[in-house]
Amino acid sequence: MHITYFLGKIARALFTMVLVVTFVFVVLRATGDPAQAMLPEDATQQDIEHFRSMWGLDKPLYEQYGVYWLNILKGNFGQSYRDRRPVTDIMAERLPKTVYLMTLSIVFAVIIAIPMGVKAALNRNTFIDRFTMGTAVFGFSMPNFFLGILLILLFSVKLKILPSSGSDSWKHIILPLLTTGLAYIGSYSRFTRSSMLSVLNKPYIRTAIAGGLSRNRVIYGHALPNAAIPVITIIGATVGRIIAGSIVIETVFAWPGVGRLLVTSVGARDLSVVQAIVMLLSITIVTANLIVDILYGILDPRIRTKKGGV
Fold first, then answer.
1. Contact 199, 193 (CB under 8 A)
2. Residue 16's Cα: distance from chain center in Å?
3. What would the pLDDT profile of 167-199 be if each residue is shown by its tens digit?
4. DSSP 3-state assignment of 86?
5. Does the pTM of the predicted model rise above 0.85?
6. Any residues with CB less than 8 A from the CB of 63 and at least 6 apart, and which?
7. Domains detected in the chain
């Protein structure tokens, strides 16, 4: 693959991350004063000014911005206003929980959704197809927070067999996993079915069948690898949004991950923590998109990076 393409991708990725972090940096400071959010209501003006001076919030915005980027280049993401601890330490505690939950959700969805989509495509316009796609549409269209609340009411409040919050045991992950996984299953299976139907109508598939190849070899050796390209796109986008996608789920189930940390930090105007999470979010999205581009070329030999494009 041409080196110019990768250099261009990396340059655009870095530029995108700088834009996102800059936007969040400015908006957070324009929408509220961290001193007012962090200090008690009876804090004096002297207390507020001392807080701003201690955290460098009394300096001009451009100077705060410059100091922020200089610290990042040194690997210093600042300290939390609330916990008075390095942001990297707080993130290191929360990130594994989010990655664990979202990774299991994606794997769970892929294992179920791909066979569902293939089965639906091979039985087009039959009861199996309509039932499979009906289930997929239900999972895709149901809002995460609403489905999560329904599952809590059923399994935690009514049946009392699963915990509704926390992460102390394997039982705590079942409801968040189902809530997230159902949405992914709906999306992945629909894409798989659509892509498989498109590939099954291609001339080379008909040629392979006419040549005497077995049905399974045609489906899994020729059709599915080519149909996987659009599916990988949607999975890659999901992986890229792994932190953003966890915000609602972690809030509903009180899961102690980065998504819940982001919500509480925005409310408390804990700027250093919010900025670090946004930067991490940008990195995951950009990295996922780059990996998807590479997988394109591996799965389809016709897709090759050329100078000026793909």
1. no
2. 17
3. 888 889 999 999 988 888 888 888 888 888 888
4. strand
5. no
6. none
7. 91-267 (1.10.3720.10)
